[in-house]
Amino acid sequence: MSEYEFDYASRIKKIQALLERLELDFIIITNIQNLYWLSGTAQYGVLLLSAKEKPALFIRRNLFKAKEEAYIENIIEMKKTSQIKEFIFKLSKSLDNLRIGMELDSLPASFYIYYKKMLNGAEIRNIELDVRKLRMIKDRKELYLFKKAGKIAQKAQERIPEVLKPGIKEYEVAAEVIYQAIKNQSVHFSNVNNIFGENWFILASGKNLWTPSYFPILSGEGLSNAIPYGYSDREIRKGDIIMCDYAINYMGYHADHARTFYLEPYPEGFKRKYRILKNAYEEIKQDYLKAGIKVSEIYNQMKKLLKKEGLATFFQGNGYYYQGLGHGIGLELDEPPAFLPNIDLELKENMVIAMEPKIIIPEWGAIDLEDDFIIKPNGAEQITNTPYLFE
C-alpha cells in the first residue's frame, strides 16, 4: 500500500511525555481511535500506559487478530476488567493517591462509574482532549492515506453533475455518489468520538438547504422524522441549488468534502454570491493557511471578508447552526483544532484540516465549499480539488 509505516514508537513517546507533563501515574486508553493510533489494532480492548513500564494491551476480543495486528508486544487476554486494577496494583502496591488519566468525554457514564469504583483511592483525570491533540500532527503514512482519501472524495463529488436532471430525487443522487465512493474503497460511515458507524452524508436542495434540524450544520431534511438529516425524497427541479457534503473514510482516515451545484437555470443572485464566497475562500487559502496562524484569526478574517460584501449575517448559518469554519480531520471526522472565533490554537506543519466556508440564506438557499488541506510552513497543500462552478 505504501512504502511508509506508521510511527508507533513516536506516538508512545508522546503519551509518555504527556504522563510526565500532567504528572500522571497511568493512562488508561479505551477510545477505539486512540487505541488504534497507539497500538495498530482496533480490536476491543484497553491499553494501559505508564512512564516507566512497557505498554500493556488488554484484549477482550479478538485476541488472535490483535496479536497479528498490534505494535504492542505485551498483549494480555482480558477475561474481566478487574485485571487492569490487578496489573496496576502489582506495579504500585496501592491505588491510594494514584493519578490516572482516562478519556472521559467518550467513556460511557456506566463505564466511568465502574472504573471509579474499581480504582477507588485513585484520582481519575480527563485527558481526552490532550490525547486528541497529540494526533493533530500526522506522520508520513497518514499523509499518504489522506491524499488517497481526498482523491476518492473528489471522484464522488464529480459524479453529481453527471446525474443531475429534473425529476431526480435527492436520495437517488446520493445513491450515485455513495456508489462511486464505495467502488473506490471508501467505507460508508465516519468514526466520531469512540463510535464506529456515524453516517454524516448530507445532500440537500430547495428548502432543505436553509431548514435547520437537530444536526448542528447545514443538515438537509432526511427521509423520516426518526433520522432528521441528510438526503430526502424531495424531487430536484429546474433552478434548484444542490449541496453535497460527504465524508470519505479510507483505511480509517477521513476526507471531508463539499460542493454546491445547480440545475439550470441557476437562481437569481447565485453566481454573484458563489463568487463572493469563493473569492474570500481563495484569499484565506492563499494568505492564512500556513503554520503559525491562529485558527481564530482565520475564522474572524473570513467573516470580515464576507461582511464587506454584505453576507456576514449568513456566514456559517443564520443563528440556528453551531458551525465553525473548519476542523481537523484524521481517524475521526472531526478532530482538533476547531476553527472558532475563541480558539487561539496555532496551525502547525503536517496538520490536516477541513475548511468549510458556507452561507445559508433563509428562503433562498445555501452555498458550501469544503476542502481538505495539509498544512505546510509557508502555505497548504489542497488535497480535494473538485472544480468550482465559476471563475
Keywords:
Creatine Amidinohydrolase, Chain A, domain 1; Creatine Amidinohydrolase; five-stranded antiparallel β-sheet; alpha+beta; 391 residues
Q: Taking all residues together, what is the mean pLDDT?
A: 94
* Relative strand content: 15-25%
> What portion of residues is helical?
25-40%
Number of helices: 11
Give a description of the structure.
The chain is α+β, with helices and mostly antiparallel strands and 391 residues long. The chain has helices at residues 8-21, 32-39, 63-69, 82-92, 109-118, 128-134, 140-158, 160-163, 170-183, 270-287, 295-308, and strands at residues 26-29, 44-50, 56-61, 74-77, 99-102, 123-126, 190-192, 195-198, 202-205, 241-250, 253-262, 326-328, 335-338, 352-355, 358-361, 365-368, 371-376, 379-382. Helices cover 32% and strands 23% of the residues. α7 (140-158) packs antiparallel against α9 (170-183) and α10 runs antiparallel to α11. The strands form 5 sheets. A 6-stranded mixed sheet has the order 4-3-2-1-5-6, with helices on both faces. The protein has a 5-stranded antiparallel sheet with strand order 13-12-14-17-18, with helices on both faces.
